[in-house]
Amino acid sequence: MDMKTLLLTSLQALSKQHTLTTLGDRSSYLGASDIGTCPRKVIFERLHPGEHDLATLLRFQRGHMAEDIVANAMIAAGYDNFDRQVEVIASGTTPIKVHIDFVFTSTQPKIKAILEIKSVSSLPDVPYASWESQLYMQMGALKEQFPDYTIKAAVLAIDLGSGEVGFFNGYTPEDTMYAGLLERASTIWINYQFMLIGHPVKPATEPSPLCGYCNHLTTCSRFAAEEVPELGNSLVELQELQEKEKSLKNQIEPKKANLFQIVEKAGHSIKVNGSILSKAIRSRKSFDISRLTAFLADQGHTVNDFQESSSFSFLEIKKSKAIKPATTRKAA
Ligand code: SF4
């Protein structure tokens, strides 16, 4: 078995075991994060659970690591008033179990503070709507269970790659929000039950930038159509960032060139504000194509004989053609 397959199969087994011990049978209830997610995705993941790929499994491991790091830091800081993976069952007829990463409890005054950990690959400026609905669901359920406690919540987003951390604090329970989420959960659950018994139900679809991680995109009606207006904001955000990147590059390059010119002329390193600016030289090997061509020709070959094409993929964005309005002729 090669290393990649070994990693894949063992992480798949570990992930199933971890889900079973921490979350139980996920097909028998809805979790807090399910309720803010696209209803079709939630239902299809229960009806047709697939195996996770290596990238997803590694992302899961990164999430567990982030939680362990926070737990260790809290213990080192002297906090011992927290519980991890706290399960709370919401009231009502829909089976809803929320699992909270951390609940810190104080008895004088009576406070229960939720801390949700999100492992991210880049920090958002503001918390995602799905994180917030998860928090409102958790706070609502915790408030039902502990009505005499003040409930609070926060999200700690950690980028393990860059070491950046974002703390989004100050959430308190919102009864209307909680009621809306319970209603939404009830619709998802009823549709799921109908589909389990083979009833033809079309659950709501909510396209978002996260559709790329959905295992049911290829059968999703939203992507059978050419137009997906719900992704408009994501595209605008990307294009705005690309514009900024272009303009930043235009500002960075001349500044870099100016400083390089100074260092080069000075002929030695210069210290500026605690940084050392120096001229670095790296060498890279390149082929002498004319000699190589001559050598290969002697052997009866050309460079083309040794060229192979490989493909790569990227996102191409082109302006779509505007649809011309149909012309009508006036009767003479
Ligand atoms: S592709 Fe997007 S809209 Fe379709 S089911 Fe998946 S998450 Fe929902």
Structure described in brief:
The chain has helices at residues 3-23, 32-35, 39-47, 54-76, 129-145, 175-196, 221-224, 232-266, 289-298, and strands at residues 82-89, 97-107, 110-119, 150-159, 164-171, 270-272, 275-277. The protein is α+β, with helices and mostly antiparallel strands and 332 residues long. The strands form two sheets. It has a five-stranded mixed β-sheet with strand order 1-2-3-4-5. Strands 6-7 form a two-stranded antiparallel sheet.
Commentary on this structure:
This protein has 332 residues and is of the alpha+beta class. The protein has 2 domains: 12-225, Lambda Exonuclease, Chain A (Alpha-Beta Complex), CATH 3.90.320.10; 229-267. It contains 9 helices and 7 strands, in the order H-H-H-H-E-E-E-H-E-E-H-H-H-E-E-H. The chain has helices at residues 3-23, 32-35, 39-47, 54-76, 129-145, 175-196, 221-224, 232-266, 289-298, and strands at residues 82-89, 97-107, 110-119, 150-159, 164-171, 270-272, 275-277. The strands form 2 sheets. The chain has a 5-stranded mixed β-sheet. A two-stranded antiparallel sheet has the order 6-7. It is extended. The termini are far apart. 16% of the residues are buried. The model is unreliable at 328-332 (pLDDT under 50). It binds iron/sulfur cluster. Residues 38, 40-41, 205-207, 211, 214, 216-217, 220, 222 line the site of iron/sulfur cluster. Iron/sulfur cluster binds at residues 38, 40-41, 205-207, 211, 214, 216-217, 220, 222.
